[in-house]
Specification:
The chain is α/β, with parallel strands linked by helices. Helices cover 40% and strands 14% of the residues. The model has no long low-confidence stretch (mean pLDDT 96). The structure holds ligand SAJ.
Length: 414
Amino acid sequence: MKNICVFGLGYIGLPTAAMFAHHGANVVGVDVNQHAVDTINQGKIHIVEPGLETIVKKAVDNGNLKANLTPVHSDAYLIAVPTPFKGEDHTPDLSYIQAVSQALAPLLEKGDIVILESTSPVGATEQMVAWLAEARPDLTFPKYHEPDVEADIYVAYCPERVLPGKVVEELISNDRIIGGMTKESTKKAQEVYRIFVEGELLATNSRTAEMAKLTENASRDVSIAFANELSIISDKLDINVWELIELANHHPRVNILQPGAGVGGHCIAVDPWFIVNQNPDEAKIIRAAREINDNKPNWVIKKINAEVDGLKTQGIEKPIVALLGLAFKPNIDDLRESPAVYIAREMLDIDSAEVLLVEPNIDKLPKTLESGKLTSLKEAMETADIVAILVGHAQFKHTDFNIDKAIIDAVGIV
Ligand code: SAJ
């Protein structure tokens, strides 16, 4: 498996392409974004991921990795393009996968393998095969219900499960699920990933692999929702939820996660909806978890506003509120789909308080928060009347919150 074409050079596609190239494969990465293509061809990266730039630079310098706007014929095609929602009801939008299918279909030759990595609803791999087959009636393609019948083209669904911030390390060491449409497709896909994966390559079929990816993130979402629900109940009962969870977790078979300001990122807050959308009558806990986690930021806003109202009745005309943390999780600079950004946006629209934004991992506020003031932790701690801790950044852990201010601790630092 010498020549590999990777579609989508984002958070998953680029590290994967670079890793194949780093291990000797001849890789062409394809993206519609000219800026991304140009940046990568200079040996640089357009995303933030520790350790990735070094690998990309080496691979570009030794000629194993090249970025392009259009694909070239390869032995293996990997697809890592986005699968966003179409509208309010969380219907998955497979149009990027469709566009890639149409671009790669003319290049296919007997014996090639097509691997879908994009997080997808169950059945997406079969839909992709339908698009490929429509464009190439001269070739045969595998069928889900005929796993022993071989076809001209091998097809598999192989989700990634790497943690943003640890991608380089986890790509190599994580076990991987390899879901072939046929048994032979599974074997071929295992050969592809064996190029750099040191973890186990777990064989299954395409539907189970699709559902496994969604299940992993839904599982974490449900666990976090449980913690978030406990935090709201505990607040009402005047119990410290962090102590409560710590104590409960001493039970040998209990392992509760941590409550927070909500669930952010591009995976856990998104993937469970693929299950709910496809199984609206059956996916009850999964839907409830999404709703609980999506509502947590509004609960935090209510708590902050209650403190604001309290200070106003004490005569402070416009209390100063410091919001600590904007990233979607601790110790990263990624603000996308962040509950803290949502809270900041809502608080900036409120006239009754002045809002200071503290995020030590960035030096410029995003457009949506431009009306806010990026403030140092020191200044915020000196001037604010109310401090709301929204993200558990390491910098905040070393701060003394034993001060004469109202503190709302959404992440259990205090
Ligand atoms: N969070 C909590 N409480 C916790 C743990 C997390 O509130 O106890 C919050 C975080 O603050 C954050 C959100 O959940 O807002 C998600 O963070 P995360 O670190 O749990 O996960 P992600 O989104 O960075 O990456 C997840 C991972 N999935 C699982 O752990 C099951 C990763 O392995 C996947 O590859 C990734 O989604 C993905 O791409 O799907």
